[in-house]
Amino acid sequence: MTNVPALEVLELRKTYATGVEALKGISLSVQTGDFFALLGPNGAGKSTLIGIVSSLVNASSGSVRVFGVDIGTQREAAMRLIGLVPQELNFNLFEKPFEVLVNYAGFYGIARAEAMVRAEEELKRAHLWDKAHTTSRNLSGGMKRRLMIARAMMTRPRLLILDEPTAGVDIEIRRGMWRTLRDVNAAGTTVILTTHYLEEAESLCRNLAIINHGHIIENGPMKTLLAKLDVEAFVLDIDGDLPAVLPIIEGTALTARDARTLDLEMPRAMDLNRVFALLGDAGIRVRSMRTKSNRLEELREIVRILRIWPQTLVPPAITMTLYFLIFGSLIGSRIGPMDGISYMDFIVPGLVMMSIIQNSYGNISSSFFGAKFGHHVEELLVSPMPNWVILTGYVAGAVARGLAVGIIVLCIAMAFTKVRMPHPWIMLSTVLLGATIFSLAGFINAVYARTFDDVTIVPTFILTPLTYLGGVFYSITLLPGWAQALTHANPIFYMVNAFRYGLLGSSDVPLWVAYALMLGFVAVLAAISLYLLRRGIGLRS
Residues 421, 423, 426, 429: is their CA dihedral positive or negative? Predict the structure, then answer.
């Protein structure tokens, strides 16, 4: 029986009632005494697999055996071999640690006298004996996690399964738990750990499987898989055009992205200067470089917007349709031309810019504050990702939403009037600068906000009035002198008029003044945002 795997999974499938196929026929074997990592992103299927192994989730098909015992036909016997540490805290916080362990042992039929002896042993091993008679709710986060491990060990399981036990805890707590788990494994218990931290798997485990979208995509010794994963990817900007035939550099993969951009993949251990020298010998001079990973946060934020498009794109489309219908058609027919332009045509640029501004600002302020409120942003703050990459990612997502809504509004406008667009490049540059400005402003608002009410104060009491007083629905020539002077202090007024010039060829302000103002705002707000990130204002204690 010594050769019987601790865990054997064969063609395991799970399809939930919603139709989501979480596991797609995976097979896996974990040897007795191993310290095994199951690695994968959130939603990959790790927790579903653990749920099936621990009998909390019913498999659609396939089989699971624990030390040769089938959990489908011999569930009770199989469960006596397993200790489970779930991801969420699930013990009574009003009980004392000693009581938590003794009561848990009772579920497995362990006599109270024996349970009390084991509870003392496990609490001492978890360095919690001095807290044995303290109410559990008063323990620190790390102590609660260690208590869950101690509880699982009360039944002397041959297989200990931990579902992301260090998710959301700080690095010191994490390392303390690592020491505890090493002791458990050294005592002869097989350990399976699910995690999305590669560092954690590398530090603890001897073997590893990577699961993604319900499939096992890699499975084998840790060192072998790390060698495959230990690859860096760069984007190289080239001075001049690339040659027709790229050089062959052993150990690297070179791909031409375009005539002046090169994709490079190479092992981390390889000397980058040597690669540059060999490229130079082939007549390729590298002007600048960036890592592909720099685009991760940008892509993630854009994907989030696309995933929830009904909430982000449909409401502003409905709102702007009503604006065109009520102000453009019904009221506009009575107002008449504005600066020689039909009133419907006149309000199109303002409504497009209004939608871009509001959505760019709202997207980043709610998104970043939500990440801050839920402590998700801490993953970024403790990572080696540069501050400008974090900022670019969030701003790019907000700009993407603003542009998407702006395009929708422009398409809606075409149903009411014929749009000429004599200066498309001015249109494009104006909306990009405007969306960037208010994305940065929304970021700053989110950094300083302490509650969700703080996020809505600026849009309600500052942004909305500035938008309506920014020349969206009227020409400045209709205002008295003092009101015209006041309007010239409104930055939205310049953005609306620059876009109106690109769309209709008409503007109340010189174009160069509008561009100078917009570029200045981008520079100042970007500098403030980067300063806040660097200092950790509103983000770090």
Answer: positive
